[in-house]
Specification:
The chain is an all-alpha fold and 150 residues long. The protein has seven helices and no strands. It has a domain at 21-119. The longest helix has 28 residues, at 21-48. It starts with a helix and ends with a helix. The relative contact order is 0.08.
Length: 150
């Protein structure tokens, strides 16, 4: 069966599962909010256990990163993401998953040529473009601040 590009797009569009954007947004909001509340709960727990607020915030972040990596490793993250959608992309858990998943997939190739080389395949561009965007923002902010605009 030979199709041109237009026919293929129409064929794929007809076969694609239609999604309910409103329901997906609500789920993402609820699950993302839950992850944020969980992070706040860990922070409060660490403060309650006697840590300084800055240390408690760091420990909270580390705990969320660890849990997201653990859940990715045992296969729970994908199951949660299937229902939560974009809610699991709360930056810290989504980043942890984006680093952990390719590393796990490549573990059979060894630590150097597999895990280490594949670990940042997904997250690498995010780091690069995020860094470049922050540099550009910093330069713009510098010139605005220097000119007395802020």
């Amino acid at each position: 069966m030979h199709m041109n590009k237009k026919e293929y797009i129409e064929y794929a569009g007809n076969r694609a599962k239609k999604s309910n954007s409103v329901v997906n947004c609500i789920k993402a909001f609820i699950f993302g909010g839950f992850i944020c509340c969980l992070g706040q709960g860990f922070r409060d727990l660490y403060v309650f256990l006697g840590e300084e607020e800055l240390v408690a915030s760091t420990l909270s972040s580390v705990t969320l990163i660890f849990l997201a990596g653990l859940f990715t490793g045992i296969g729970w993250f994908d199951k949660i993401a299937k229902h939560a959608g974009a809610g699991t992309l709360v930056p810290i858990t989504g980043f942890s998953n984006a680093v952990t998943a390719p590393a796990i997939d490549a573990k059979s190739e060894g630590f150097i040529t597999g895990v280490a080389s594949q670990m940042f395949v997904i997250a690498g561009p995010v780091i690069v473009y995020g860094t470049v965007a922050s540099i550009i923002y910093g330069i713009i902010y510098f010139f605005i601040y220097r000119s007395g605009g802020i």
